[in-house]
Amino acid sequence: MSDQIPNDEIARTAQSTYDAFIRAPAARAWLRKRKAICFYGLNQLARNVQIHGLQDAARTWKIPFYYVAVGTESRLEQVVAYDDVLFLTTLDHVPVLAPHMARCNGRIALIAGNYDGSPSPATVKTVTDDDARLLDEHRDYISVALTEYSSTWAERYYRGYVAKHGIPVMSFTWGINLVRHFPADVAKTGDLVFAGSYFEKTPRIDDYFGPAFSKFSHTVLGFGWSSSPYGIGDVVTREFNTLAPVLYSGHTVSLNVHHAHEEAGHTCNERCFNVPACGGFMVSDYAPRIRDFFPEDEAVVADGPSDFLDKVEHFVRYPDERIPYMQKARRRVVAEHTYHHRLCDLLRFVINGDTVYDHCPVMTVPPAT
Q: H or E segment at 37?
């Protein structure tokens, strides 16, 4: 494990983002209330990394943050005892929260699905007529809809929230959890590492990872690998945040691959941020959104499977050449992409109607004429 959690780094970032938040008078007034934040939803591994990141950031600001999983609704009673609560949830769970909203001055940041079509209908669902009725019914509680998409693609696929329901849409991408994502002082245990499922992107994993697996030692964690041709069993952990520093610091190259709709430019995945935060070096397939966050000297992106293998092989053979990328990328995520930054922008928008940083633009409702 690492020598220690970088407390100075946490303290600096927590303070600078907190200062940015409280520059708004409305934010200072909100902090004086008996306030809380609460996630209510399904217990999902990828979503948990994000939610726990926001939770840890909130705790450094001394803001209570509750995690209430579906099936443990009795815990909501503790949450709604506060005077002002921001809930993060999905649309299907809003009706459960609705009866409590008046009691706690509740507001909702909606983890939202596509509204206006889908780049991949088989995997990315859109708002149904029943969903639209729910949005209308509970509109007064919903302060903002959140999407991982860039502002360009949010305009394409999320405009309906604004145009039909008057709900602003924020591009709310992944980040890093400074409390848990940091380099580990460990010996190298293998050439390659990948943490993720097999069944979601099977053809792309076969094309990109298969040749590299045949050449280099590798560690893989995730669902569905027992049905793959690589002789890998399923290794599932609920402790990703604990293992991530050791995994990514302990291997020469961290592999990354995206869904087809992500490659088309809509978003990039959480590994793009977690890998450099945890002292790792990423080689990724091409997702244009990566370049919105990391220039060419910070993130290595391949043009296709053959180029991917060439880049993996190069950096396995010449590991010292990874170091400038790793140093610059980690400075970048700490400076711009922590969950402290994301929480600041989310709270500033919900409470004060604005944001501070560049990476969470908002598609707002035009003023009435």
A: strand 35-41
CA 174 to chain centre: 3
* Site of tokens 């609704």: 73
Same fold, 7-177+338-363 and 190-336: yes
CATH number for the domain formed by residue range(s) 190-336? 3.40.50.2000
Give dist(CA 341, CA 334) in Å, integer.
Answer: 9
Total Cβ atoms within 10 A of residue 62? 8
Report the C-alpha gap between 243 and 223 in whole angstroms. 16
Q: Taking the C-alpha atoms of 244, 249, 255 and 256 in order, what is their torsion angle to the nearest 10 degrees?
A: 50
Q: Could you tell me if 300 and 284 are in contact, meaning their C-beta atoms sit under 8 angstroms apart?
A: yes
Compute CA distances 214 → 31, 206, 217, whole Å. Answer: 55, 11, 8
Query: Roughly how many angstroms between the first and final C-alpha of the chain, as a whole number?
Result: 59
The enclosing H or E element of 38 equals strand 35-41
pLDDT digits (tens, 9 = 90+) for 346-367: 999 999 999 999 999 999 977 6
Q: Where are the domains of the chain?
A: 7-177+338-363, 190-336
Burial of 120 (0-12, 13-18, 19+ CB in 10 A): middle
Express each pLDDT in 116-142 by its tens digit: 998 888 778 899 999 999 999 999 999
Q: Which strands sit side by side in the sheet containing 300-301, from one edge to the other?
A: 218-221, 190-195, 251-256, 282-284, 300-301
Q: Give residue 36's region: left, alpha or beta (phi > 0; psi -120 to 50).
A: beta
- Evaluate whether the domain defined by 7-177+338-363 bears CATH number 3.40.630: no
Read off the DSSP letter of residue 247: H
Structure tokens at 118: 């889908």
85: Cβ contacts below 8 Å, ≥ 6 apart = 35, 36, 37, 38, 79, 104, 105, 106, 107
Q: Shortest CA distance to 229 belongs to which of 239, 242, 220? A: 220
Tens digits of per-residue pLDDT, 97-108? Answer: 999 999 999 999
